[in-house]
Design a protein that fits this description.
Layout (H helix, E strand, L loop, with lengths): L18 H23 L4 E4 L4 E5 L1 H7 L10 E2 L6 H14 L3 E6 L5 E10 L5 E9 L1 H47 L7 H24 L1
Antiparallel strand pairs: 1-2, 1-6, 2-3, 4-5, 5-6
Helix pairs in contact: 4-5
């Protein structure tokens, strides 16, 4: 106010107790930090995608996957051009329209197998977004393939062992007959080449069955 001649100048001081507000701000800041740390501690890539199909938030695992630093966690970050993201963008668009969660498996050309789960969520601003969670199934698929190969090899081994066992029984009888024939034709030089050749072939089959049994 303009000074009035002869008047006493006074100052009005207004004090507001903001202790409770500071306490609430501290709690909110602590809760946000805890939530961020929890969000980043999850090893699965998690992204919050807005209705414009732009990434609003993502955790550290997703940052590693999309090749962006966590410091770039700003609204409007688009999905990168990596081979997995066109599928993720399409699924996000479907969920934004249907408002129903969706889970699907994706095979990318690099040989990886992924499971993408997309769920709708409504923010306080009334905007509908989607939460996308990715899971790399490649190690599990490789383990399943190895288990199937092991089962096949086990079955082949059982068949091989069974065949070798069944063949060796009559083969022993044939060997005994060959030995008896060799004794009878010992003095007949004309028949000796035949018995010698027969003995070689029987031994050949016997060696083959031993190898097959060992393989089984």
């Amino acid at each position: 106010l303009p000074s009035v001649p002869g008047a006493t100048r006074q100052v009005l001081v207004v004090a507001t107790d903001i202790t409770e507000r500071k306490r609430l701000e501290g709690r909110l800041s602590s809760a946000a930090l805890e939530w961020t740390q929890t969000f980043d501690a999850i090893d699965l890539p998690i992204l919050l995608i807005g209705s414009d199909l732009c990434v609003r938030r993502f955790n550290v695992a997703a940052a590693r996957l999309i090749g962006r630093d966590k410091a770039a966690d700003l609204p409007g970050v688009p999905l990168g051009p990596r081979e997995l993201w066109p599928v993720a963008e399409r699924l996000a668009g479907q969920v934004l329209v249907s408002r129903e969660p969706l889970t699907t498996k994706v095979h990318v050309p690099s040989g990886q197998e992924w499971e993408l789960s997309v769920s709708p969520v409504t923010l306080q601003t009334a905007e509908t977004c989607v939460v996308l969670v990715g899971r790399d199934l490649t190690p599990l698929v490789e383990l399943q393939d190895a288990a199937r190969r092991s089962e096949v090899m086990s079955a082949i081994g059982l068949v091989a062992a069974g065949v070798a066992h069944e063949v060796r029984n009559p083969l022993q009888a044939i060997e005994a007959i060959v030995a008896a024939c060799e004794a009878r034709v010992e003095m007949n030089e004309a028949l000796r080449p035949f018995t010698t050749h027969l003995r070689q072939q029987v031994q050949r089959v016997s060696t083959l069955m031993s190898d097959l049994l060992e393989y089984g």
